[in-house]
Amino acid sequence: MKTGRIAALLLLAGLAGPAMAAQCEAEIEANDAIQFNKKSIEVPKDCKKFTLKLKHTGKLPKASMGHNWVVSKTADVQGVANDGIAAGLDKEYLKPGDARVLAHTKVIGGGESDSVTFDTGWLKPDGDYTYFCSFPGHSTAMRGKLTLGK
Fold first, then answer.
1. 23-148: what fold?
2. Global pTM?
3. By CB atoms within 10 Å of each CB, which of 12, 44, 138, 142 scores lowest?
């Protein structure tokens, strides 16, 4: 009888483990109205890697209404966006090798999706990070806060 209870407790503990693990991924949607569906994303502090999935729920092609998900320090957003315009669509509207870009997806059009998995070591609890779309003209409307959980 005791052995059965111990086995049952061990089984329950094993099943509870994954449910209690940090959720190291998030999904965000972008649409043809130049909007993300989330204003903030929190990365759990226990995550060594984090995956962000971007889904374009609109219908327009990437050449006319493309979206990507880019994260940088908030102070760098405008510079990254400005330099990205000159880089063009074939470079995802990001200056090649731009160290200010901490993570990004590719530019996608309506009905498409993309994801990026990144190491979280650069995220600091008191850091000021913004995610945005670097498609020309989108960065002021399509942005949110990326934070590291406490």
1. Immunoglobulin-like (2.60.40)
2. 0.86
3. 12
